[in-house]
Structures are given as structure tokens and as C-alpha cells.
Design goal:
single chain, mainly alpha, 2 domains, about 40% helix
């Protein structure tokens, strides 16, 4: 059975409050020149979405994420780290984790370059351990 990941999006009242505020700010920006002059006709959600309830409904229907999970198998030298600096899983022989989950914190930039770096370093570590 594949793992089931439940991210609990929009389950906390602050989630909706923040999304509503962001929606209103984006609407204000779109109504301000020079953006206003570039919009011939809004495609969505349309001018009828104005109340907090309508915004919440819209956000729940069309919202998505570009969330890049990381940090679930944190690397470190302390006892609470899942993997060590050689990407070895603590307590399990011959198992390494070489992906974004070893990052101890979410990178401030896009996660892709950091993940490639982990993979490159991991392949070097594994090749060296195998004598290549």
C-alpha cells in the first residue's frame, strides 16, 4: 500500500484568514495601474467573488500547492537526526537516504538545486564507500 500523506491544508482558521488576506491584496494589485490596463477581462474568479465566504469557497475549490516536502529524515550529528553526514540511516546498516528529506531546513530558494546537490554528494559518498 502506498503511503498516505495528509497535509491538512486549510484546516486551521489562520489558513483561511491568510488566504483571504492574500486574495484581497492580489485583487488590489490587479486593480492598480499598470496592471489594470493589462487586464482585458478577468478569467477567474470573476467580479462576483467579493465576500469572505465566496473567497473561502473559491480558494478551497481551486487552491493548490507547490509545496516541496523536505526535512522528514533530517541529517545531523545529534541523536535526534535520522541520517548522519554520510547519509546513513542511524540504526539500520547499509541504508542511506539521498533526497530532499535529509535537509534540516527548507531552503530559501527553490528546492530543486539543493536536491541536486544532495544527490551529487550522495552519489560521491556511495561510490567512495563501494571503492569506486
Amino acid at each position: 500500500m502506498p503511503p498516505r500523506i495528509v497535509a491538512n491544508y486549510l484546516t486551521h482558521p489562520d489558513d483561511i484568514r491568510i488566504m483571504t488576506a492574500g486574495f484581497r491584496i492580489a485583487s488590489q494589485i490587479a486593480a492598480t495601474d499598470p496592471f489594470r490596463s493589462l487586464i482585458s477581462e478577468p478569467s477567474r474568479p470573476g467580479p462576483e467573488v467579493t465576500s469572505d465566504e465566496q473567497i473561502e469557497d473559491y480558494v478551497r475549490k481551486v487552491g493548490s500547492t507547490v509545496f516541496h516536502p523536505c526535512g522528514t529524515c533530517r541529517m545531523g550529528e545529534d541523536d535526534s537526526a535520522v541520517v548522519d553526514s554520510a547519509l546513513r540511516v542511524r540504526g539500520i546498516d547499509r541504508l542511506r537516504v539521498v533526497d530532499a528529506s535529509v535537509m534540516p531546513a527548507i531552503p530559501s530558494s527553490n528546492i530543486h538545486p539543493a536536491t541536486i546537490m544532495v544527490a551529487e554528494k550522495g552519489s560521491d559518498i556511495i561510490a567512495k564507500a563501494l571503492g569506486h
